[in-house]
Amino acid sequence: MTDAALPSPLSAFEFLVGGWEGEGVGGVPNGDDYAFAQELTFSRVSEDTLGYVSRIWSFETDRHIASESGFWRALPEHRVEMVASHSGGFVEVSLGSIAFTRVEAASDVVARTEAGEAVTAIRRLYGMVGDDLLYAVDMALIDSPMAPRFSARLRRVTQG
What we know:
The protein is built from no helices and ten strands. By secondary structure, it is mainly β. It has a single domain, classed as Lipocalin, CATH 2.40.128. The chain is globular, with a radius of gyration of 15 Å.
């Protein structure tokens, strides 16, 4: 079965499947905002689960900024659960909802390694605007409240 023929309940994720590229803005508490480039891929891994991989790097230095990979699972009643492993040394389990071409989720659990970034909460919003995928990710740290971390406009470069 190809990604173009997604089975239910994955059909709600159909708008995400494929490869995406684009540019965005990142920020950290008490730091300057910065521009970045990003690649993001969503692909079907089972009847109810999408896999995803994201890589973000600096326009100025071509240096790695962040990457994450994980799984998005469609649940009954338009609910979504996400599990992600971040290159900053933390993992997240988030719960949310999907409606039409919009996904919202917030962390239920965030855990980190000994040297991992001190993230305590994550909030995500993804949505289609025209043919582009826009998203915003906010994060809270042990010593900083929830604040914008990454936002971008991505264009589809490959179909599922």
